[in-house]
Amino acid sequence: MLNKLPQTQDTLVLKSVNSTEIINTINFYIENNPCKNMDIDISFMNIIDSCRITTLCSTKHFAKYPDGKINWKISSKLIEELNKDFELGNNSYIL
User: pTM, whole model, 2 decimals?
Assistant: First the structure.
């Protein structure tokens, strides 16, 4: 008999292209769910919105889980470069 291992990481699926709605969705999820480690795909967003989303939501996540991690799936290496000065230590970027 096969047993499923407990999921150790949450994957958030976003359905909006509005950056404010995405930020609100992610922040609501962080506030109301245990999500120490997360994967979030924002590769469909433009560079400016992606930088805004990763900065604001990573800050919210860090406040709740200082030792947690968010893996951001992004469309450009430039997003990581633009956010490097705001790095909280809980971000990881995946192209």
Answer: 0.87
